[in-house]
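Why should sequence recovery work at all? Because a backbone constrains its sequence more than one might expect. Tight turns favour small or flexible residues, buried strands favour hydrophobic ones, and helices have their own preferences. The token representation captures these environments compactly. In the example below, the structure is given first.
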């Protein structure tokens, strides 16, 4: 008996499909609604004409996904929950749910000669978006240089539009997409990625994926060279960036630096410090900050020295005539400065340096030492560059940064435009021959505010030397 019913149903459906092309179709209706609303789909009878003659029976059936919902002529067909047929053939769906979204087919028929009318209506139940991340854990760890593949699966009606954010900023994409693929070639790409799904119904939904990129340590020393005097406290710092977190060790003369009452190791987040509470002579040298994790290792070197710090030219330096310039500089040194070495040359490629030795002029004990010096015999309206080295009892300092200057007052303020960076200075400054600096030059210079005959004669000799050197260069 069951087999016969299935055959009959199949034949009926086939016959019905053949009739569709010959029947009348009324305009389609798509109803957009929200959950828990009530929807009434209009009957498919044309203009109500099938109801004018009460003596002629009218049969109305509604289908959903091949399932018969209601049949006006068959009382054995029980409508599903929340669905009922009106007397005029309309179909009511109350308290609609998301699962009610879809097409509903109405079939209104009468015996010949009227035939039947078929119409397909639709219900679209709109609901706010929801979204979940892939990977579902919301976390992804990869190595530097690998491909990042993250996605967000969104649901909602209408279909949500997706956008992505990182570090609080919207990621500019050419189209709406639920997936991101890119190469992790920079550790700055580490962080939280947020996908936001919005379809205009309710509040937007979002999900987050935390991306962590594994990379070997990166180390940066706050200062690569530190000036210190015996008896003072110093702190050596290096900044370490790594994932996974790196193990950091301090080494001095190929040995690990142990903790002691005098030497203490500390770290605050990514800053690792070595504190020497009281410097002694054996502490001078190079300290190595080593960081290691599963991805590799890195090192930063910091030198602790008693040699004077780099001299710094003061802004008060200025031209004093068309052929002379006054320099003022300061040096940080815990011990007295013995002498200075002053280098200058015309600001022109291929020029040779003129080197002068200048006594300190005082026996002050640190930490700050100042010197004023008048350089004469210069060419008018010409740009020059200069640098200074300082010597205390522990040796010569490194060269100062280059100072660009000119004797023409109207152009003096523009000299800063020619200032080079440190990398350029390294290429321009010759290697300092410390051995040759042990002998003081016969040239001297005037200290501002002094008028001794000895200094005047030295200034004259210096001016003659500079002019003679320029004549050779010219």
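From this structural description, the recovered sequence reads:
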């Amino acid at each position: 008996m069951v087999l016969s019913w299935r055959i009959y149903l199949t034949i009926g459906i086939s016959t019905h499909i053949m009739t569709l092309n010959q029947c009348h179709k009324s305009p389609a209706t798509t109803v957009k609604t929200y959950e828990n609303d009530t929807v009434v789909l209009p009957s498919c009878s044309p203009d109500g004409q099938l109801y004018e003659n009460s003596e002629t029976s009218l049969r109305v059936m509604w289908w959903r996904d091949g399932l018969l919902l209601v049949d006006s002529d068959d009382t054995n067909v029980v409508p599903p929950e929340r669905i009922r047929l009106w007397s005029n053939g309309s179909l009511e769906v109350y308290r609609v749910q998301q699962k009610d979204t879809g097409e509903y087919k109405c079939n209104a028929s009468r015996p010949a000669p009227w035939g039947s009318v078929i119409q397909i209506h639709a219900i679209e139940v709109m609901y706010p978006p929801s979204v979940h991340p892939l990977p579902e854990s919301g976390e992804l760890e990869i190595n530097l240089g690998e491909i990042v593949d993250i996605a967000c699966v969104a649901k909602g009606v209408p279909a949500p539009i997706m956008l992505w954010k990182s570090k609080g900023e919207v990621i500019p994409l050419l189209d709406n997409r639920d997936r991101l693929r890119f190469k992790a070639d920079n550790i700055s790409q580490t962080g939280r990625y947020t996908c936001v799904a919005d379809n205009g119904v309710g509040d937007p939904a979002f999900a987050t994926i935390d991306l962590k990129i594994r990379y070997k340590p990166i180390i940066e020393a706050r200062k690569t060279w530190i000036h210190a005097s015996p008896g003072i406290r110093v702190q050596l710092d290096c900044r370490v960036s790594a994932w996974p977190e790196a193990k950091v060790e301090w080494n001095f003369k190929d040995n690990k630096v142990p903790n002691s009452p005098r030497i203490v190791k500390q770290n605050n987040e990514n800053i690792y410090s070595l504190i020497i509470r009281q410097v002694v002579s054996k502490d001078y040298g190079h300290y190595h900050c080593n960081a290691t994790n599963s991805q590799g290792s890195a090192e930063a070197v910091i030198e602790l020295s008693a040699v004077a710090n780099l001299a710094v030219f003061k802004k008060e330096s200025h031209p004093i005539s068309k052929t002379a310039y006054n320099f003022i500089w300061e040096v940080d040194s815990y011990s007295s400065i013995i002498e200075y070495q002053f280098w200058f040359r015309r600001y022109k490629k291929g020029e040779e340096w003129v080197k002068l030795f200048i006594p300190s002029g005082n026996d002050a004990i640190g930490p700050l030492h100042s010197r004023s010096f008048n350089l004469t015999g210069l060419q008018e309206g010409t740009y020059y560059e200069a640098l200074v080295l300082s010597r205390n009892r522990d040796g010569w300092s490194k060269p100062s940064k280059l100072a660009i200057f000119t004797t023409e007052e109207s152009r003096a303020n523009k000299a800063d435009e020619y200032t080079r960076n440190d990398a350029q200075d390294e290429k321009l400054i010759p290697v300092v021959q410390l051995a040759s600096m042990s002998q003081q030059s016969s040239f001297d210079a005037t200290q501002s505010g002094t008028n001794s005959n000895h200094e005047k004669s030295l200034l004259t000799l210096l001016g003659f030397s500079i002019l003679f050197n320029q004549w050779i260069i010219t």
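A few observations help interpret the result. Confidence is low (pLDDT under 50) at residues 1-24, 48-54, 417-474.
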